[in-house]
Amino acid sequence: MLQLAKYSFGVGDRFAHQASAQLRAFEQIRRDGVDVIPVWNKSNREHSFIGSEPASVLKAAKKAVEQANWDLPWHIDADHIRLETVDRFLDSSDFFTIDVADSIGKPPERNHLATFLKNHSELFGTLHIPGIEDPIRISGDGLELIAEKYLAAAKEAGEIYRHIVHAKGAENIIAEVSMDETDAPQTPQELLVILAALSDEGVSLQTIAPKFTGRFNKGVDYEGNLVQFEKEFNDDLCILAHASKVYGLPDNLKLSVHSGSDKFSIYPIIQRALQKTGAGLHIKTAGTTWLEELIGLAESGSDGVQCVHEIYAAALDQIDALTGPYASVIDIHRDKLPSISTVAQWDSKRWANTLRHIPNHPEFNASVRQLLHVSFKLAAKRGDSYLDLLDKHRDIIAKNVYENIYDRHMRPLFLRSN
Ligand SMILES: [Zn+2]
């Protein structure tokens, strides 16, 4: 049985050039005494924007782990797949993020609802979940409402899961179920009902990605109520531990945080919760590495900084088309975007300070960062001329990629003192 380890970390490598630099961060945290398993993730949307194939992710990762003699597991995540998109990922992935967010709220079949309510009387009333201070209460009507909202999504997860299992064998895959790309966060009560329903569908999931409270905008810090997030995150951990026992789900079942990269202010909360409970974690980042490519190019000067400048100019020009698909996960203040003539005066250092995610740096600009975060398509359009620059300035880019993942993400998440 392919088992996902206790701590795993999803990295994105949009142009398949940074796997070695990323892996160096995993090697360092391992030397610090914490094993964190790399998972290279790329969604169907990213592949179609870039024009790449899933096999390229496997190839780049394989080369990096072989060169580094990495002898712990590593995985390739078919990120946010659905029944209509999963097939092209079957050969090259061993981790499947089954996205059923679009089916939340679809009415379930009447029989399905009635059977679920009949079989799950344990979910009515007052539930004492170990670790959660106040007992959870779910009324009969409340349970019916939650079941109505999520049963169709659970059923769809079952269909996709069985499709993957049929192709690859249950023992060769790691399944995640994601419900994060939706409007309303899921409460701990809802998470419990969802897990019961997924168990009924026979989905042997090892991670689940709920939508948490607050905003998870692309590439910038968390915005929301940290006290509420902490309570919710801790309650969710308790729900998972309880559900894995009661519903026979894998005992390594853990939360997956689809971070949209760089949610620094919740990292200490997550770290405390993991230390306190001994729970595992999967955290996904993706676009943060592409931004480090831009920062490295900016720092390299000459043709590198010129490329960043041109991509920014094109991004300003096509801002509506680029930001449209991400409208719900970005918050760009257009009045904070400097004009093309302003940035024409910028040197390497100014560009790097503007983009590098040091939130309290006076030159950091969250709007520029978010705009460029969603503009990777523009680099893809440049084809080999972009890839050649990545090769030419490999070392300075690798340094930025490594430091970002190790210093700003892994240390605060996994090391006790930082
Ligand atoms: Zn997600």
Polypeptide structure, described:
The chain has 418 residues and is of the alpha/beta class. It folds into 2 domains: 7-287 and 406-414, TIM Barrel (Alpha-Beta Barrel), CATH 3.20.20.70; 294-401, no CATH class. The chain has helices at residues 19-31, 44-50, 54-68, 110-119, 140-168, 188-200, 226-246, 267-277, 287-300, 302-317, 319-323, 340-343, 348-355, 366-373, 376-381, 384-392, 394-414; strands at 7-11, 37-43, 75-81, 95-99, 125-127, 136-138, 174-178, 205-209, 254-258, 281-284. The strands form 2 sheets. Strands 1-2-3-4-7-8-9-10 form an 8-stranded parallel beta barrel, surrounded by 6 helices. The chain has a two-stranded antiparallel ribbon with strand order 5-6. Helix 6 links the parallel strand 7 and strand 8. Helix 4 packs across helix 5, helix 5 packs across helix 6 and helix 9 crosses helix 10 (302-317). The longest helix is centred in the middle third of the chain and has 29 residues, at 140-168. The radius of gyration is 22 Å and the shape is globular. The two termini are 35 Å apart. The relative contact order is 0.14. The model has no long low-confidence stretch (mean pLDDT 96). Bound molecules: zinc ion. Residues 80, 178, 180-181, 209, 258 line the site of zinc ion. Zinc ion binds next to loops.
